[in-house]
Amino acid sequence: MEKNRAKKMYDYHVWANKKVFEHLKQLPDRIYNETVNSVFSSISDVMIHLYATDITWLETMKGSSYHDTVREVQRRKLEASGASLDELEAFYHSLSEEYYRFFVEQQDPERIIITEHPQYGRSEFVLADLIHHVVNHGTYHRGNVTAMLHQQGERGVPTDYVYFLFK
């Protein structure tokens, strides 16, 4: 799965998350945890949500059961909930390494992933589509972070895909 568009999109996701972390680390410490009247109550809440959701989809792509996935997400989310910005960045890095190890094992990005969900039932997804979903979800929430930064009088950092292509 080394030379495909889904992996390239995931590379963008990792790059954009790194840009956000680099930017947040340059801002006053209070910005990361400050309560904001927005979709999430703080930037740290957005970043933990994004981390937990990325875990959810990796576990799904790996074929973990719904209940095993929920347990793993809860365990790792609890671990990340009290983390500093640097610690959370390390969790993100570790998770991206898990994704890359998973990608190396994949021969066909177009293979079908079958999932069972208690509410939605049985679903079939193309692996590449799930990877694109992970990236799209991340883009959406990085936008939330930018909006929350603006609410606090700070600037965001450009993470549009085209900036990744320029690098």
Automatic annotation (TrEMBL):
InterPro entries (UniProt xref): DinB (IPR007837), DinB/YfiT-like (IPR034660)
SUPFAM superfamilies per the UniProt record, alphabetical: DinB/YfiT-like putative metalloenzymes
Keywords, comma-separated and alphabetical: Metal-binding
One protein family per Pfam: DinB
Keyword Metal-binding in record: yes
Source taxon at top rank: Bacteria
Similarity annotation: Belongs to the DinB family.
Record protein name field: DinB family protein
Source organism of the structure: Cytobacillus citreus
